[in-house]
Amino acid sequence: MHANRNDLPVTLEAGAAYSRDTQWGEMNVAFEGFPAGMDTRPLFKGLPEDRCQCPHWGVLLKGRLKILYAEGEEVVTAGQAYYLPPGHNVVVEEDCELVEFSPQHDYDRTLQAVARNLQNAGTPPA
């Protein structure tokens, strides 16, 4: 299987943030972009430790991300491949674009929590 970014369906479009993703086998594959200043902490409220519990593998094509863990933080910069284990949050330090792969089951559970938090904040999910 293969796809260009524009081949995948848009599943999120909110200002400068977007996600185009689909399921391949047991994995979710996504092309995503997020604006500088975005912070995932409010989105993951209610999950264990209020952190994303889905593992992700990806490549940051553009920008800079600060990954927050209970025990510390790390920075991912454009051109780097990454692995984010369960138990993380992300702060977007520079506008970013990425390609990311996640186990579909864990991804779906995380999106349910994100949708609840967006609804509670008065922001309808895409």
Secondary-structure map with pairings?
Layout: E1 10-14, E2 17-24, E3 27-34, E4 56-69, E5 72-77, E6 81-84, E7 88-103, H1 104-120
Antiparallel strand pairs: 1-2, 2-3, 3-7, 4-5, 4-6, 4-7
| Portion in helices | 10-25%
Shape: globular
Return the string of H and E elements: EEEEEEEH
Q: Under the CATH scheme, which class?
A: Mainly Beta
What is the makeup of the main sheet? 7 strands, antiparallel
The CA-CA distance between the termini, in Å, is 26 Å
Strand content: over 45%
Mean pLDDT: 94
What structural keywords apply?
Jelly Rolls, 126 residues, 1 helix, 7 strands, mainly beta, single chain
Structural write-up:
- This protein is mainly beta and 126 residues long.
- It has a single domain (5-120), classed as Jelly Rolls (Sandwich), CATH 2.60.120.10.
- 13% of the residues lie in helices and 48% in strands.
- It has one helix and seven strands; from the N terminus they run βββββββα.
- Strands 1, 2, 3, 4, 5, 6 and 7 form a seven-stranded antiparallel β-sheet that branches.
- It is globular, with a radius of gyration of 14 Å.
- The mean pLDDT is 94.
